Amino acid sequence: MLRNTTSGGYTAFELDEAGEAKFLFQARFPYQRVIWLQTPNVQLGILVFSLLVFLAAAVIAARSLVRRKATGVNLAGLISALNLLFIGGLIIVMLPVATGGDKWQFSLEPSLALQAVLAIPLVSGLLAAILLVKSLLDWRRGRGIHLFNALVLVGMAAFLFFLQTWNLLGWRF
To answer: Average pLDDT over the chain, rounded to whole?
Structure first.
């Protein structure tokens, strides 16, 4: 335990088995060391990558629907559109809190709107599992895997990791 000579406060570290700092205790605040994948810059990069993939996939799938071509991208486009809907819905639900509104609205029980928005990634994750099985069956039959579908699956895996890190996957309140 170290004592700060100017403020008189104490600082303490908790070490893991290898002698690396695992926790930092400063005044009344504990800080936990996170792995590099959970740092803010990496998490922001994962989010931006996923959103760009989803936006491109949704535009391509919408274009395919307008032209009435069966290109096999409709499921990937639906997954992408659902994830974009999730981000938009989450922003809309949380906007009153972020703009100085009722800060206690989520303290007792989450609203029905928030619960509905948090269900969207579960549906898109299920659809991504179906897309993965479909892509593997196509590959096994010798049809090859659409690069488009593979990119959406990679974006979905990254997005699910992001949601898990920020506790936005499902209803864990």
So the answer is: 83
pLDDT digits 0-9 by tens, 6-50: 666 667 767 778 877 777 777 777 777 677 787 888 999 999 999
List all residues 6 or more positions away from 15 whose beta carbon is below 8 Å from its beta carbon.
21, 22
Write b or e for each residue in 102-134: b if 16 or more Cβ atoms lie within 10 A of its Cβ, otherwise e: eeeeeeeeeeeebeebbebbeebbebbeebeeb
Backbone angles phi, psi at 48, to 5 degrees: -65, -45
Q: Are 81 and 61 in contact (CB under 8 A)?
A: yes
For the full predicted model, state whether its pTM sits above 0.70.
yes
